[in-house]
């Protein structure tokens, strides 16, 4: 760098002053940075004199320090911020109830014996043990006993007003609070608070952030039955708060042995759930796709060590395998690899006979079958592939077997579902999502590799010289040597704290409840006219009106979801369009499913379909 030219810049010229004290002398000379110093000590005078190349401004440094200390919050400041943040969280969580009057559009309806509309704010619908009672057919709310339910108070698309601040919601407009924050069609209405040179108050920041509650899919809502909804518990949120506050580097024993042990404990516990040996290894990841990518990287390095063979390597999936699996090939540098999608049988499981034929044909054509992915809980249907049979084929052709258990994996906790995971203990790797079955926040996946040494060989980190003084033990299995991630978030507390606080039994019961609710929904819909329903394997239920167009089934979907109480979607399986319900949120219980069933029945009646016999399950 040209020091002379640098010193001529206006930004630095004001720093060049002569400041003399008893122990410090600053001289007017240029240097690229006012913070880089080279001191010379003169033993006779006992003064520290800066070399002739350095310029330093003590007043400037003091001003920087005063500003930087703003980041060092006091206990009182932290308490105030946490209290205000918790208030916003509580306000949001109160809306995660099927009977809460805000958060979705409730159409007006006249109350019994009155000629005026039910206004949620006017009648002060409140929640609590003595105030709101919910059930399959009714909801009562004190003090004026405004009643709502599938047969009494319904929602409409145009307008609902609530409370003294006139909270309004509809397809075109949502207003909330005294400042009438709006979200709707205009993109400007959802812009977050901008990043500015100077900060603002915590109240303004939280007020802005809380608007997200009116502009999101409320995954924790009991009526959210689309995709695979994410959930999060209070202890998990506290775990994230603790992880961010203590902020350990959790990927190396030398930096924080206890943090590493917390992660290893979770990994080994999950390994035991699936029957893996103690020699397995794994890591917490940012999600199922990254977990799958880590596993596939290990498979690639072990089965296809030479990059020149990538173009003839073959990956085998079922037609219902999650799209994230094939996506990983590009990230791994195997874009040229061949992907075979194996059809599923009449139970939506990978057809092993067709898989074998595909492999035999590829071998004859000098291709290299290297990886097959089985799924225990497909996203579309919840079906489970026959892992033992797939394992036999993989062994015969020296292939890596990976099991995608991201959605269904933690149902292994349930005694009624354990048989579905037979053979998973023989898989070479598994991906599972704690942010699904263990109700951790989004961004929590987990990868397991049966032979941990193979995982380590694919990811071992060679430290730079700047870490040469760090004490290391070759016997330590550091998380940074079991994934490509470094400087990752300390994810263990968000999983561990809820397990420690509630115990495994609570999670087992919550998951078992979802399996039972899926069976309950299936049996209730099975006996309804005009409805064809697919028997669930896990907690996903597909149904449709047979013998009509796809547009008619989409119209049924719109009728069910129009008031915003329930969110479901469609899927197409083996060329047939179905309405898809997944019961996974821990807040979803029988009374919510009863309301949903009534809504389906009412929607079918409104469609005025011709009389038919009961439809058999499909």
UniProtKB/TrEMBL annotation:
The keyword Lyase applies. Belongs to the group II decarboxylase family. GO terms for cellular component: cytoplasm. It comes from the Eukaryota. Coiled coil: none annotated. The lineage of its organism: Eukaryota, Metazoa, Chordata, Cephalochordata, Leptocardii. This is HDC protein. Keywords: Decarboxylase, Lyase, Pyridoxal phosphate. One of its GO terms (molecular function) is carboxy-lyase activity. SUPFAM superfamilies: PLP-dependent transferases. Its cofactor is pyridoxal 5'-phosphate. GO terms for biological process: carboxylic acid metabolic process; catecholamine biosynthetic process. The modification N6-(pyridoxal phosphate)lysine is found at residue 436. InterPro entries: Aromatic_deC, PyrdxlP-dep_de-COase, PyrdxlP-dep_Trfase, PyrdxlP-dep_Trfase_major, PyrdxlP-dep_Trfase_small. Residues 102-200 are annotated as: Disordered. Residues 156-183 have a biased composition (Polar residues).
